[in-house]
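Model: You mentioned two targets. I'll fold them one after the other.
Researcher: Yes, keep them separate.
Model: Target one:
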Amino acid sequence: MNELKLGEKAPDFNLLSTDGGLFSFSDHQKGHKAWHLIIFFRGEWCPACNDYLEEIEKSTEKFANQHTHIVAISSDEIDRLKELVSAKSLSFPVLSDKDRAAVRGYGVYIHKEDGPYEDHGDHNEPAVFLVDDKGNLLFQQKQTGPFGRPSPHDLGKTIKYISKNLR
């Protein structure tokens, strides 16, 4: 598993978006001089992920006021992710990482079919990364299961704290 260090450049990725296009993180960064909150989630089938993404959606204005864009990534099928975006009215980019290139690049945990407990086969687990406007990693939180993610409120506090204390 890739171990990212704070302050280092965050890995680039090019993934299929639910809007039908190819999303290039480096191109998006160039076009949006903002911080980015990259949220990895398990998939459309995960109720805890659905609830979390709905909470994030309700906080998009707060994140925008902190000059922070949201990008969500799952290794789920693009058609299922399109259904999720439609059902939950998600306004931020939702990307399919079917080959798990971004998952591996960011060192996100993968639950395998032969894991210690049964859980919907192979899939990535949740993780959250904060990347600054220069592409440097400022925060990371990875999980080995669906619960315990930082709330949108706590993420907002984290963004505020880091922005006030940057070197």
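Model: Target two:
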Amino acid sequence: MTDRPNYITPAGFATLRQEYEQLFAHDRPALVETISWAAGNGDRSENGDYIYGRKRLREIDRRLGWLSRRMKAAKVVDPAQQQDRSRVWFGATVTIADEDDNQRVLTLVGDDEAEAGAGRVGWNAPIARALRGAAVGDLRRVMLPAGEREYEIVAIDYPAPQGT
């Protein structure tokens, strides 16, 4: 792994845990049962259920190992608890505008929960690194695959703290 912290929101961590529990408690035991049944049917070399089941079991075990390592390394950070709400930090929802005044709304989340199509950008993505620490009105240059772009921070928002 890297020596960078694996920041993740509470919702992102819950999603990882839910996938882990689904694979560990439901999918894997059902697959082991199928493999056991298929193994009892005789010749394993031509038994599709057995061969596919073993392959799928390796995939599940690999995914369980990856999820386990990611959850162990995770540093859960609740964006609602952010003290400095005037700057862009982890969990911020940021409205940015480019040179042509096209606006985009991005939320800086953990790398494991990033989904660009939904506007969730990984904390270590180039645009997220450029936006870190910026305040409303700041200009930031970002090197993207399409070339260098300059963005202005238009708005910064964080989730409301619980109990308010």
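Researcher: Noted. Anything on target two?
Model: The longest strand covers residues 147-157.
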